[in-house]
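Priority: medium. Attachment 1 of 2:
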């Protein structure tokens, strides 16, 4: 109600001893309310009819300076963050506590869209602009119905999560500018039941070592998963080359390690089939780079060190609670088992110098006492590179030897250096011969691989 009108009516009633009932009808209030207004008029005069909040901004209104600060902070410091993450960073790092809705409205009013804006939303915005330009009366009813239909490329049907933690681990890698100016590759595994990241590792490219490191983190922290689900990229597929080295067949190497631990592995070339890990990368790409930047990370080693505690914080915030009673992870292997099972196996033959050439270097075979063992030229061997980089050699499926690199040139001369000391044999750690390293079992597995069979048929 207009305060001035109310003031004039009450003033007239008091000064002319007018009818209170008429005043109540005129103001649309009760007779008792008129009596109260008369009392207030006699005590305060015209000031009684001025609202207490007149001239003040609403309590929920934000200062213009705050809006300016938010826009400036986003443009200069947090430009890579999505709006939800940006809101969290404002509270954590800048002491500014506002809602995501308010942040979105401020930024969008200044022409800033979230990095996570979807193609579907872009289409809706474009369609809305076209709709505003055109005359609303010319639109047909069919057009309104069509607006509710999602384009096929934007539609991804939902499926239920797995029932148990560890039942299915979706695994993938994403090359991206995670830190610095160049791209690196993040390998992760995401549990389908909980949405938790169970392992992660940065590497220069998508590599077998990157996936082995993720597998290692899962084994050490949770145990042996039931199944992996991944795509058919080069690390998990293999196109046969002329005289190809089995050590380059990363599909077989990873699958053979899974076989030793009793973990199944399934492949798909359709990204939507492993939507859990695909969506995880979308979230990480909008959050992790800014976190790495704020932490001052500049190299892969620093990124991997940062990643471990970041994953714990991320899971605590976004993953479903892990119910250990509904876990199907099997018992954790020992550190030695993990190191030896997550290895790369490749075949080599002994050359005329009773040594083995591997990765353009020459190695001699040593027994547990550190004494070199000599085999005939042409003897087939299985070279094993363990996860920690240690090299071993299996001969005849019964003997294991450590491999020691032969230097290209001796550091000192026995005849000319007075401080020359004749090297003495050192005891070497030799793992026990076990099933994963038996050549017959490994080659039987290789021949059973589908991609090898297909290559043989096509040849």
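Attachment 2 of 2:
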């Amino acid at each position: 109600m207009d305060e001035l009108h109310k003031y004039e009516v009450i003033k007239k009633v008091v000064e002319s001893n007018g009818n209170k009932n008429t005043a109540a009808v005129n103001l649309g209030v009760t007779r008792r309310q008129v009596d109260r207004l008369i009392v207030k008029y006699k005590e305060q005069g015209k000031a009684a009819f001025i609202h207490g909040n007149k001239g003040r901004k609403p309590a929920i209104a934000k200062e213009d300076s705050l809006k300016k600060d938010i826009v400036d902070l986003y443009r200069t410091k947090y430009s890579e963050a999505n709006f939800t993450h940006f809101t969290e960073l404002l509270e954590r790092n800048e002491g500014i506590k506002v809602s995501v809705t308010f942040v979105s409205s401020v930024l969008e009013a200044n022409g800033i869209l979230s990095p996570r804006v979807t193609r579907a939303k872009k289409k809706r915005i474009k369609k809305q602009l076209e709709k505003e330009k055109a005359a609303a009366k010319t639109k047909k009813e069919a057009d309104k119905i069509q607006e509710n239909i999602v384009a096929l490329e934007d539609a991804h049907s939902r499926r239920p999560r797995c029932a148990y933690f560890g039942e299915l681990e979706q695994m993938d890698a994403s090359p991206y500018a995670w830190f610095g100016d160049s791209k690196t590759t993040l390998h992760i595994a995401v549990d389908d039941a909980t949405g938790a990241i169970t392992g992660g590792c940065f590497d220069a490219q998508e590599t077998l070592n990157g996936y082995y490191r993720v597998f290692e983190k899962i084994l050490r922290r949770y145990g042996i998963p039931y199944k992996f689900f991944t795509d058919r990229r080069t690390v998990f597929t293999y196109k046969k080359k002329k005289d190809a080295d089995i050590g380059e067949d990363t599909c077989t190497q990873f699958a053979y390690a899974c076989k030793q631990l009793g973990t199944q592995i399934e492949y798909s070339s359709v990204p939507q089939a492993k939507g859990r890990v695909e969506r995880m990368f979308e979230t990480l790409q909008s959050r992790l780079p800014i976190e790495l930047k704020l932490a001052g990370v500049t190299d892969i080693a620093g990124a991997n060190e940062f990643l471990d505690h970041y994953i714990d914080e991320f899971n605590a915030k976004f993953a479903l609670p892990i119910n250990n009673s509904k876990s199907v992870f099997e018992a954790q292997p020992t550190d030695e088992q993990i190191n030896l099972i997550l290895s790369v196996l490749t075949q080599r033959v002994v050359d005329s110098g009773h040594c083995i050439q591997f990765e353009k270097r020459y190695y001699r075979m040593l027994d547990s006492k550190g004494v070199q063992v000599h085999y005939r030229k042409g003897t087939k061997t299985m070279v094993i590179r363990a996860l920690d980089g240690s090299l071993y050699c299996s001969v005849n499926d019964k003997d294991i030897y450590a491999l020691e690199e032969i230097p290209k040139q001796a550091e000192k001369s026995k005849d000319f250096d007075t401080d020359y000391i004749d090297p003495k044999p050192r005891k070497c750690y030799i793992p026990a011969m076990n099933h994963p390293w038996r050549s017959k079992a490994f080659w039987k597995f290789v021949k059973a691989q589908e991609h090898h069979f297909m290559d043989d048929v096509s040849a």
